[in-house]
Design a protein that fits this description.
Blueprint (H helix, E strand, L loop, with lengths): L1 H32 L5 H10 L6 H15 L1
């Protein structure tokens, strides 16, 4: 009876490990295809909205977004 418990435990641990690596690979590919917002993207978005962004405003927005993601 203990052999079934051992096999179940080993299968559970293997599933967790495999799932972790699959999820990690998926996220790496996703971030490669869809990079997070950077200063250049912020400038383009603000220009599309009709704003003339200053470097100070860009820095403030980047700091706010970095703070929000943490």
């Amino acid at each position: 009876m203990w052999i079934y418990t051992l096999v179940g435990l080993v299968a559970l641990l293997a599933g967790i490990a495999i799932g972790f690596f699959i999820a990690r690979r998926y996220m790496m590919n996703y971030l490669k295809k869809n990079p997070p917002i950077n200063e250049q993207m912020l400038r383009m978005m603000m220009a599309q909205m009709g704003m003339k962004p200053s470097q100070k405003k860009i820095n403030q927005m980047m700091q706010a977004m970095n703070k929000q993601t943490k």
